[in-house]
């Protein structure tokens, strides 16, 4: 059971997943908010049943799974529905992540949360780690990776906390503009620090 939680975050295209996987290679358990968010609305889940009660079966696919694009369209056009959905899902996601943290066998656990500061989830962790790159590099990497337009990427970056805000809140920062070898060195150094901090917790 891991009693010490490090919250890992970073804007789109920053390299959060790469950093998380480097920690995993060192034997550290990961709890990923994006995975949990999918689990809490999986087929026959409590979350999906509540969503179906509110919006009807038209937000389901033929196989009984959630039709994400139909739900997105529905909440995109209604602040009230979006708030309702957030009020339903955020506590479920929080509870599920904390439960997973309790169950892992690891000296500490990395909780990967894209919107760690935006959703106030930094309150659940002992320490925060930000993967940081300049916005123009975020844009280049995301366009190359996801084949999306520059405007779409700008909208996503604009909807997240500012770089300055995240930098001011983070306990630790990894600058991810360099080579993978440099990144590994930074992760190894932080791993040593987190082992020390978790042993004292």
Spans of at least 5 consecutive residues whose pLDDT stays below 50 are none
Query: How would you write the strand order of the largest sheet?
Result: 2-3-1-4-5
* Broad structural category: alpha/beta
CATH top level of the largest domain is Alpha Beta
Order of helices and strands: EHEHHHHEEHHHEH
User: Count of helices?
Assistant: 9
CATH homologous superfamily (4th level) name of the largest domain: P-loop containing nucleotide triphosphate hydrolases
The largest β sheet comes out as: 5 strands, parallel
Number of domains: 2
Large-scale geometry: globular
Count the strands? Answer: 5
GO molecular function, one term: dephospho-CoA kinase activity
Main location: cytoplasm
InterPro entries: Depp_CoAkinase (IPR001977), P-loop_NTPase (IPR027417)
Family: Belongs to the CoaE family.
Descriptive account of the structure:
With 201 residues, the protein is an alpha/beta fold. The chain folds into 2 domains: 1-28 and 108-201, Rossmann fold (3-Layer(aba) Sandwich), CATH 3.40.50; 38-105, no CATH class. The protein has 9 helices and 5 strands, in the order E-H-E-H-H-H-H-E-E-H-H-H-E-H. The chain has helices spanning 16-25, 33-39, 46-55, 68-76, 79-103, 135-146, 150-159, 163-169, 180-200; strands at 5-9, 29-32, 109-112, 127-132, 172-175. It has a 5-stranded parallel sheet, sandwiched between helices. Helix 6 crosses helix 7. The longest helix is centred in the middle third of the chain and has 25 residues, at 79-103. The chain is globular and about 50 Å long. The relative contact order is 0.22. This is Dephospho-CoA kinase. One of its GO terms (molecular function) is dephospho-CoA kinase activity. Pathway: Cofactor biosynthesis; coenzyme A biosynthesis; CoA from (R)-pantothenate: step 5/5. It catalyses: 3'-dephospho-CoA + ATP = ADP + CoA + H(+).
